[in-house]
Amino acid sequence: MKIILASGSPRRRQLLEQVGLRGFVVRASDVDESARPGLTPAEMVEELSARKAAAVVREAPKDGLVLAADTVVALEGAVLGKPASPEEAARMLAALSGRTHQVYTGLTLAGPGAVRTEHEVTAVTFRALSGAEIAAYVATGEPMDKAGAYGIQGLGALLVQRLEGDYFNVMGLPLCRLGRMLRAFGVELLSPDGH
């Protein structure tokens, strides 16, 4: 079965390769990522991942399996997207400082005759950050293309005091859940023969 990743994220590609998936095709979906008002963060990521998968599955081969994901950061139920400016990034980081927030990722697998959508949530606690630390981190440019204005796989790791849940979810692809979902489509990442 040919796996098609409906994402241009280099982190998601790297994570798929990390668990042994090779030869997958990348076809980033070009869909409207605005969510309907009133959705919870969990509902939002599920809806958006399903929308991304639907956009790519139309062009997929009949035996293809499309994988789509969407990740958001939520603080007290309010979704923090990617910052539009360094000032907005600094405000987001100040809001997260010394507090616990949630990272939600919606996963959709769309294959021959079946679509499955689930989500994962991870609680992340930041240590208290000084204004100088926030300014220095923002100056690196790392926060600018990341939901919640940080990347745990980079310098953002220095901000995280505690994590409860799937670490890879915070990177944008919960691997444990993905493995279980793939198994339901006949893709076994841990087979008895080691392949």
UniProtKB/TrEMBL annotation:
Q: Which cofactor does it need?
A: a divalent metal cation
Which Pfam families is this protein grouped with?
Maf
Active site at D70 (proton acceptor)
An example of a Gene Ontology BP annotation on this entry? Answer: nucleotide metabolic process
Q: Mostly located where?
A: cytoplasm
Record field: transmembrane: none
Q: Under the GO molecular function aspect, what terms does this record hold?
A: dTTP diphosphatase activity; UTP diphosphatase activity
What is the reaction catalyzed? Answer: UTP + H2O = UMP + diphosphate + H(+); dTTP + H2O = dTMP + diphosphate + H(+)
Q: What does this protein do?
A: Nucleoside triphosphate pyrophosphatase that hydrolyzes dTTP and UTP. May have a dual role in cell division arrest and in preventing the incorporation of modified nucleotides into cellular nucleic acids.
Q: Which family does it belong to?
A: Belongs to the Maf family. YhdE subfamily.
Sorted alphabetically, which PANTHER family does this protein's record hold?
BIFUNCTIONAL DTTP/UTP PYROPHOSPHATASE/METHYLTRANSFERASE PROTEIN-RELATED, BIFUNCTIONAL DTTP_UTP PYROPHOSPHATASE_METHYLTRANSFERASE PROTEIN-RELATED
| Protein name (record) | dTTP/UTP pyrophosphatase
- Tell me the organism: Intestinimonas butyriciproducens
